[in-house]
Amino acid sequence: MRPCSFRSAALLPILLLAGVPLLAQKPETSMPPTAVLNDFANNADGNGYLIYGPMQASDGNYYMLGETATNMIRVLPNSGDTAGTLGTLAGQLPAVCGTDAIGNVIEGSDGNLYGMTYSGAANNQGAFFKYVISTRTCTPVYNFNPSVDGSYPSQLQGGLTYGTDGNFYGMFAYGGGSANNGSVFQITPAGAYNTIYSFCSTGVSGCPDGQRPYGYLIQATDGNFYGATNAGGSGANQGVFFQIVPGVTFPWVETALFNIACINGCTPRGPIVEGPDGDLYGAMSAGGANDGDGAIFQYDFQGDFIDYYDLSAQYEYPAALFVGGDGNMYGEAYPYECDCAGDLYQLTPQTAIYTSMGTLEASTLTNPQGQIIQGSDGNFYGTTQSGGTKTYGGMYQGVVTPAIPAPVQVTLSSTTYNGSAPITVSWEVLNATSDTYRNCYLYTQPGGGTFTGKATGTQSGSTLSGSSMVTPTLTGTYTYAVECAGTEAGISPTLTVTGLAAAATKTVLAVSPNPVSIGATVTLTATVTRTSESGTPTGSVSFEYQGTVLATVNLNTSGVAVLTALTTPYGPMTYPVTAHYVPDSQDSASVSNTVNVVLKYGTTTTLTVSPTTITVPGDATLTVHVTQKTGTGTPTGTVTIYANGGAVISNYPLTNGSATIVAPTTGLPNGTYSVTAGYNGSSVESTSTSTAVPVTLN
Prior knowledge:
Layout: H1 11-17, E1 34-42, E2 55-56, E3 62-66, E4 71-75, E5 87-92, E6 99-107, E7 113-119, E8 127-132, E9 137-143, E10 151-153, E11 161-162, E12 168-174, E13 183-187, E14 193-198, E15 211-219, E16 225-231, E17 240-245, E18 253-259, E19 266-274, E20 280-286, E21 295-299, E22 305-310, E23 321-323, E24 329-333, E25 342-347, E26 354-360, E27 365-368, E28 373-374, E29 380-387, E30 394-401, E31 408-412, E32 416-417, E33 423-429, E34 440-445, E35 453-454, E36 458-460, E37 463-470, E38 476-484, E39 488-491, E40 495-497, E41 505-512, E42 516-518, E43 521-530, E44 539-545, E45 548-554, E46 560-566, E47 573-583, E48 590-591, E49 595-601, E50 603-610, E51 613-614, E52 619-628, E53 638-643, E54 646-653, E55 658-664, E56 671-679, E57 688-689, E58 693-697
Parallel strand pairs: 32-40, 42-49, 51-58
Antiparallel strand pairs: 1-30, 2-3, 3-4, 4-5, 6-7, 7-8, 8-9, 10-12, 11-12, 12-13, 13-14, 15-16, 16-17, 17-18, 19-20, 20-21, 21-22, 23-24, 24-25, 25-26, 27-29, 28-29, 29-30, 31-33, 33-37, 34-35, 34-38, 36-37, 38-39, 38-40, 41-43, 43-46, 44-45, 44-47, 47-48, 47-49, 50-52, 52-55, 53-54, 53-56, ...
């Protein structure tokens, strides 16, 4: 149901009591869209509670955070009903990145993923972290500090927003000031943290500016940020809808635009969206006119707040909204009173027509909680908190009939290139309704010297159109992706590049340890780089000794090949080793520097001292024996005697692998000394050190 708009939330109870009629919902269209909801990626890894929703990165894969096990979960794209087969674990976040993941994942302009945890890490309050897709590694960018920043990044679909300035924005539900009422913060990709605004920090009774911010911010087309709180306000203490205006210095200016009241909907969920009509829309998971089943609100920038749509018992507790490629809004609901576990719905702007498109079966995935997205294939994707083979939730796919255009579309002027005219990469962002979704970047996969940067263009209504000329410099295959809001992607067809000269490469070989004892392992590391082109070579490396291939190892994603070899089959001598790069179709071969790997027999040195308790100036008799570990010869050379780490007898010669030394103690201070014997090695034998013997002087 849709009541009349008003400029003050406090007026609504008065209007209702006065019997002011509510606007009736318009009838549904004759051909509403339908969707088949496939159990797309059942989380068989058992790492889940996927309550924050997925994103699609520029590599075409879907990523999300598994809250309970703090995992980065990756799902490979596919089409059709491939139930439960596509879930893959991208990696457990290390302890330095914190535990208990919170919120969404965002791809930054550098092509890395960013996210948050709310416990663990250096200060046990979580961290803002960077996740590198190519290496599957996570590093903390900023460790939250409760004494400075606030605590507990907003839960219940709380998360990050990617600003047009390239910085990340989020909210704390608690902390952020002496009053402990929450805050809005900014973090730069380099880890500079700023508190934008602290709620209810002036001591004014009732917190008229709001408290306990929940959900996500949106950066609207006016450049300002908008969000909602779960408490405070000058009305029913059920929150406010607020605006924050960016400034030159901190804090920025916050204005409570209207007071939230549960009679119209309360407890904000997920991101707010800007519709094609220019108004803001958001989901309230509670309250509303139908027994607290939740509502969708609308704000029109003129001060009017509209209880846009009240959900009913069959379709209730709405999650976040998403503007699809057709300009309609889409979301999830979690109905209790039907034999299903979740509902994918369409909500048309201005007409407030709610269409249930399809439901999840209670026997599979249950309890959808986060924001849905529309993938580059035009299908919808969402996650659930529970259900699946291990009851930890999963990801589902909604295939809609009739088909809905993907919100981000990337095309090429040609899908082949042989050195002739440059290629034009064109993009259209159909849901560029806010600054958040106009914040787009162009990425090249997997690389190769082409343009990557801000994907700007011409704005016409809700559509952002742009293009860029690219000139490939390397033979191979590429795709181009436009990523908007850090969460939705459009992927181009594959570009095949032929007829270009291969890129020059350089191969560098390092060996450790060197010298190495026969019987031990030695590690050979070859690093291959392009000398004048960007990107990382693929292919393999052959490690060779005088034309004999020791082993061939594939390069990893960083262009490095590592061989760990056992030295037992070889005798003592110097082996000149090189690394030969076996190139891919894009790169030229190269040969590394030569490293002379010295193999020697390993040795064992033993020491005895008699007596071990000596009255000064008595003598100590030290007996040293040196033997080969794997050989049958007798070591030659010298030994050095150390006391407490300092040399006291240097380069004493061995005879038949042994040395007997009578050492006077005259002039030495009383005390206990740690005495060791160190064998100095020879041309065919490695150094070794004996076990320490304690010797006491009285």
